[in-house]
Amino acid sequence: MFGTPRNPAANYRNVELETEVASASPHKLILMLMDGALLSISRAQGYMAENRIAEKGKSISMAIDIIGNGLKASLNYEAGDVLAERLGALYDYMCTRLLQANLRNDRAALDEVARLLGEIKSGWEEIDSDPAVLSANSSKA
Predict the structure, then answer these.
(1) Contact in structure between 66 and 37 (CB atoms under 8 Å)
(2) What is the per-residue pLDDT across 79-100, written as a single tens digit (0 to 9) for each?
(3) Cα–Cα–Cα angle for 86, 95, 41, nearest 5°?
(4) For the CA atoms of 98, 69, 91, 19, what is the dihedral angle to 10 degrees?
(5) In the chain, which stretches have pLDDT less than 50?
């Protein structure tokens, strides 16, 4: 149970990631989720090209989990904002397209979700560079 670690580098990366998550702002956490989903989709694209079915499925499942249980779960529906509802619907659509990509070996579906998520991420990154957002975040710290 407490034997020698099999992959010290992987263990180091896990500790590094846990430290980054613990100190990240909510805004940064969303960006990290998006990065994780995009990385999983990219891996799935590579596995699909190599016909590595099990790995492709695992990567797509990880992306679905990040989008459905991470990004969608972080939305604030109680604020009454139509944006949360629309993003929630878009995240549902992305999860459906990822499932279809897995079942049909559909590279175009993976590309579509990567593009959509990339566009959302780009907007999220712009919010982070907005001086009003930066000053609001620094006043909370």
Answers:
(1) yes
(2) 867 989 999 999 999 999 999 9
(3) 115
(4) -100
(5) 1, 12, 15, 17, 138-141
Nearest to 38 by CA among 7, 62, 58, 21: 62
Question: What is the crossing angle of helices 26-49 and 82-104, to 10°?
Answer: 20
Q: Which two tokens stand for residue 67?
A: 């989008």
Helix (H) or strand (E) holding 100: helix 82-104
Q: What is the pTM for the complete model shown? A: 0.78
* E-state strands within the chain: none
Q: Which DSSP category does 38 fall into?
A: H
Report pLDDT for 127. Answer: 83
Residue 88 CA, distance from chain mean position: 14
